[in-house]
Q: What sequence folds into this?
């Protein structure tokens, strides 16, 4: 069976999307002749990868690169045009590779319609791996900024839901996403394959307490985007000068966050930018409390479970999660941290102070125990590969 896998991100990029797709590729290459089609690595900056050796797949796999996507920090309309063009390039190459199955993984959402067109042109099956419902988040104002007409949002939604209905299989990263899709797709095939945690990645974490220090070390690691609303951390740092807050990662809000911290002369907050996995592991170990937040919107609360929460648990550090819904339920039911109101600086400070005690160390241990009991990412993605194989054999 020949499979073409379309993705916006792929190693050596190491953000959540690339990590999931890398595991998908590892599983598919064991059961098929695999062609991965992706832009040249560019997140957050193409120059970061200039001296790195190219990634190579096993003998029955090949990796095709297209020009790098470099519009990550531009406005939403510009990014949408750039991602659409990227998706078209990847789909054209996929249709030429004579696949039996085309698999498209979001982000970017535009890979869904493009992958469907490529599959039908090649008379192949189509599988869409959904990590989010970006077009629906936009309707709630979480992703798309002002100036985009409601009619454009509605048209985009129609295209995406038509793609969902015409796919041969939809694979969702969370139960919440699957539930939202099933509401629209009464008779279609919808499966859930969660992200899991990389067993090697889990083994790299030292669960022992961080080095003793006078100040509580707080870390946020991940995307600096609109839905995370990390402006509140500047206010947290201003209210609690004894805390030392580190924001690791990149995204469209990084520049404005740095400017806000400078405007308020906040000295106890630092920005590292995008970090390689080994650098991030060292930062996890040096931290006392790990923070995450998602804007409190109906759809985000119901569907989103940030994969960073599993990494946080693997680090055996207490979590302060500002949000509600599925992710908050995960933190609460595992006892791995505290849940507070998003955007409430006072509540976040109180949560961090409580998590920075012996009680917090117990929370971190419970999180580590929970994530250690879960199927690994490779085990989850073996199930993904079996689903793709089943679709291809119909």
A:
């Amino acid at each position: 069976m020949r499979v073409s896998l379309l993705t916006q991100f792929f190693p050596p990029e190491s953000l959540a999307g690339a990590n999931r797709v890398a595991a998908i590729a590892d599983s598919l290459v064991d059961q098929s002749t695999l062609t991965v089609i992706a832009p040249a690595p560019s997140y957050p900056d193409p120059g970061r990868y200039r001296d790195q050796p190219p990634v190579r797949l096993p003998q029955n796999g090949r990796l095709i690169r297209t020009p790098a996507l470099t519009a990550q920090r531009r406005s939403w309309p510009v990014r949408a045009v750039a991602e659409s063009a990227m998706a078209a390039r990847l789909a054209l190459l996929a249709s030429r590779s004579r696949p039996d199955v085309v698999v498209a993984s979001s982000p970017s959402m535009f890979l869904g319609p493009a992958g469907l067109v490529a599959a039908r042109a090649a008379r192949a099956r189509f599988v869409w791996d959904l990590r989010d419902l970006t077009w629906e988040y936009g309707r709630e104002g979480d992703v798309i900024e002002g100036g985009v007409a409601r009619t454009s949002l509605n048209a985009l939604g129609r295209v995406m839901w038509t793609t969902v209905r015409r796919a041969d299989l939809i694979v969702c990263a969370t139960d919440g996403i699957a539930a939202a899709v099933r509401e629209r797709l009464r008779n279609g095939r919808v499966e859930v394959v969660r992200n899991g945690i990389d067993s090697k990645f889990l083994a790299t974490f030292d669960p022992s307490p961080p080095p003793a220090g006078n100040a509580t070390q707080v870390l946020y690691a991940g995307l600096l985007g609109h839905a995370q609303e990390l402006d509140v951390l500047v206010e947290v740092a201003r209210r609690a000068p004894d805390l030392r807050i580190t924001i690791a990662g990149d995204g469209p809000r990084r520049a404005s966050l740095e400017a806000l911290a400078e405007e308020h002369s906040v000295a106890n907050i630092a920005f590292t930018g995008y970090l390689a996995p080994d650098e991030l592991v060292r930062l996890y170990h040096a931290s006392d409390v790990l923070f995450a937040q998602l804007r409190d919107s109906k759809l985000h609360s119901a569907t989103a479970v940030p994969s960073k929460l599993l990494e946080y648990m693997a680090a055996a550090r207490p979590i302060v999660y500002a949000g509600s819904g599925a992710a908050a339920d995960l933190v609460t039911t595992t006892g791995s941290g505290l849940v507070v109101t998003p955007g409430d600086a006072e509540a976040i400070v109180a949560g961090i102070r409580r998590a920075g005690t012996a009680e917090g160390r117990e929370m971190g241990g419970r999180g580590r125990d929970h994530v250690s009991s879960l199927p690994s990412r490779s085990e989850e993605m073996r199930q993904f590969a079996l689903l793709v194989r089943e679709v291809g054999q119909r």
Q: What stands out?
A: The chain is about 45% helix and 15% strand. Residues 199-373 form a domain with the Rossmann fold fold (CATH 3.40.50.2000). The longest strand covers residues 33-39.
